[in-house]
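Got a spare moment? Tell me how you read both lines of this record:
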Amino acid sequence: MSDSRRRQTYGFHGLNLEVSSSAAIATCLDSRFQMLPSNGKCAETLFFDFECVSNSKVHRVGKPSGQAKPFYQLEGGEASYFEAEDLLYLCYGDRVRVLCSPDSGVAYFSVLEPETENLWLATHLLFTICLVEILKRRGLYSLHAGGLSANGKCLLIPGTSGAGKSTLTVASLRANFDYMSDDMVFLDGRTDGFKVLAFPEEVDVSDETAAFFPELSFLLSAPKRCGWRKKQIHPMQIYGAKVAPQARPAAVVIPRIAKSESSVVTRMDPDEALLEMVPNVLLTEANSCRAHLDALSELVTSTPCYRLETGRDFDQLSVRFRELLCS
């Protein structure tokens, strides 16, 4: 594998994400962040350094000494927070190791070759955990949610993996909603006036979701990328969607899959909605955790919340979503 390294920069709402990596990792990140171009203007640069190693004995990242506590359920791996040093340590067996200093805005990745087997772990799962914690220290609070926009208003679809966020995102894109994300947005607490910031990536699509929509039938015979759990589509290429960089939250719709054909939307108590969102808060540094929880609390108390029992009437649902944004 070539030792050549690449350096690229992406822009995220006034911050630069600068990455140093191998060509293979750079290609993966370029695909992921192609809708986050850097314009060179930023308040701060966050740095992510990826290095590939030939065997587990020469990993460049080691676990810090001292007392640690788990802060994320990483199946098959470890996610530990060292409070005294204010460091995150992430590992997935001997495949990928990460050391992140959230306050400094720096993360170091050590990726075991062959790189292709570990690309998704390094550039998606573990990268995202670090980015979420780094941004939390800067007043940007993650929400595991799809985000659609119309007329400057945002409809949020929070939920865990498997709740149907991507299916509802695709249904909304077909109905000409503007795109913010299919999986994660950020709540901006830096300025006056609460707003949602887009985190636009390719939409992850399962075969089940692809089967619902005729224009995605080509995915059913397409192979997954090595290490990827789903297949990806570009919302602009497939649906001609526009990215809405930011919007005011107007409705929160928390879905769960129903067995019926018809969907049902009912008003949801804010406290119940907050309980569904609390797992978004990574339990690390106390002050930033409290601020993240406060942001989620402000969201559910200032924005109407709804429970969606999701059927298969996706065209009708997109109409209902527009009604919620206008109510």
Q: What stands out?
A: The CA atoms of residues 16 and 138 lie 13 Å apart.
